[in-house]
């Protein structure tokens, strides 16, 4: 009875110890683990100055513009509080849409725009047939807005 | 309850029972797998955003689900083996590892194949993706640690401890999307909330998850039986079972 | 049929993902089978050896 209790305690202690260590480490590196910054965080100067970082948010409706005959695009990324203009030159992923989530990797230009070198689309967890989505939109349930986080 | 448990945990009893149950898990699982695949590839409609590309969900979600579920089984079995010194529990953990590793690899590969067209990249060092990759390394570490010991009891104890420690990674995989910003979207299947996937796309997914659970059960029983045979080679019941076929040498 | 195979332009991604999945399913079945067969073989050999030893011991006891 006693040795079994002891083994149980040992296993539990090891688990608690490792869990605590990992938890504290993650806590300490929280900032480095941040995969992307929101426009609010970017404008508040949270990303390290002069370094590349990822910017995440929603592509604002109606903000995308592309010069005809060029790969250059510009759009505005917002987190529904603040927004940041982004420029990018290159091919956009299939799921890049206005109103959808996006993660851009790049840096801040002196003029306050974000220059992206890579743009990734972040999709939401909603799956439905196109007809269903249309129906929902007609009934006034904007599905796309849910991609905010 | 305890006598029943001990009887089940006795190797010859387990060996016989698992041999009986195994086929009853394997064949239904393959049938469900076929139906679910047909439902996912043919019957489910294309997604409003991702078109037919979303169908990768039907292999990605079941394999990702198996990767973490199998690890949970492995870790719990290891803990039981360490605390109660039940050899069968260690056998279960050892048998689960290669199955879990293979499905973790499939989850990573299918995720990459999904990420390329939709996100625009095969791989990102994103918290969810990285922690799933770490899970694969933990499986590999567990298996190679086992293989490095000559003595079975030592192998059981050392790898069991690694398995228990590695369980810390499971909540990290699960909550990575919530704790840190992530490229990976949130879960479509939730325990408390309605699923955010419409019914005609949902049923093949649920069917495939059920099928893969049964499939894992069948594989696990078969592999634990093999483990038990190897461990009990010199015991009486194995001689009784296999002595006749070899003839009097 | 061609439409189905084209998967709306995602053919290479969808089919490779399903291919990897089914390869994994089959691999698991085959390797579990193979493992079982190897263990049965080892058990049979061990049982035969044991029996051999037992009979020899008995014979020795007879002889002396």
Give a structural overview.
The complex is a heterotrimer of chains A (149), B (249) and C (64). Chain A is α+β, with helices and mostly antiparallel strands. Chain A has helices at 2-28, 30-33, 39-43, 130-138, and strands at residues 53-59, 65-66, 72-78, 83-89, 101-108, 114-122. The relative contact order of chain A is 0.13. The longest helix of chain B has 33 residues, at 11-43. Chain B has one domain. Chain B has helices at 2-9, 11-43, 57-84, 87-118, 127-147, 152-166, 169-179, 199-231, 236-246. Chain B has 249 residues and is mostly helical. Chain C is mainly alpha-helical. Chain C has one domain. In chain C, 91% of the residues lie in helices and 0% in strands. Chain C is built from two helices and no strands. Chain C has helices at residues 2-6, 11-63. The relative contact order of chain C is 0.06. The model of chain C has no long low-confidence stretch (mean pLDDT 91). Chain B binds chain C through residues 26, 33, 37, 41-42, 46, 51-53, 55-56, 58-60, 62-63, 98-99, 102-103, 105-106, 109-110, 113-114, 116-117, 215, 219, 222-223, 225-227, 229-230, 233-234, 238-239, 241-243, 245-249, and chain C through 4, 7-10, 13-14, 16-18, 20-21, 24-25, 27-29, 31-33, 35-36, 38-40, 42-52, 55.
Using brief descriptors, characterize the structure shown.
heterotrimer, A: 149 residues, alpha+beta, OB fold (Dihydrolipoamide Acetyltransferase, E2P), 2 domains, five-stranded mixed beta barrel, 4 helices, 6 strands, disordered C terminus, C: 64 residues, mainly alpha, rod-shaped
SSE order and pairing:
The complex is a heterotrimer of chains A (149), B (249) and C (64).
Chain A: H1 2-28, H2 30-33, H3 39-43, E1 53-59, E2 65-66, E3 72-78, E4 83-89, E5 101-108, E6 114-122, H4 130-138
Chain B: H1 2-9, H2 11-43, H3 57-84, H4 87-118, H5 127-147, H6 152-166, H7 169-179, H8 199-231, H9 236-246
Helix pairs in contact in B: 2-8, 3-4, 3-6, 3-8, 4-5, 4-8, 5-6, 5-7
Chain C: H1 2-6, H2 11-63
Instruction: State the secondary-structure class of chain A.
Output: alpha+beta
Q: CATH homologous superfamily of the largest domain in chain A?
A: Nucleic acid-binding proteins
Main pleated-sheet profile of chain C: none
Largest interface: A-B, 45 and 42 residues
Q: Sketch the major β-sheet of chain A.
A: 5 strands, mixed, barrel
How many individual domains of chain C?
1
Helix content of chain A: 25-40%
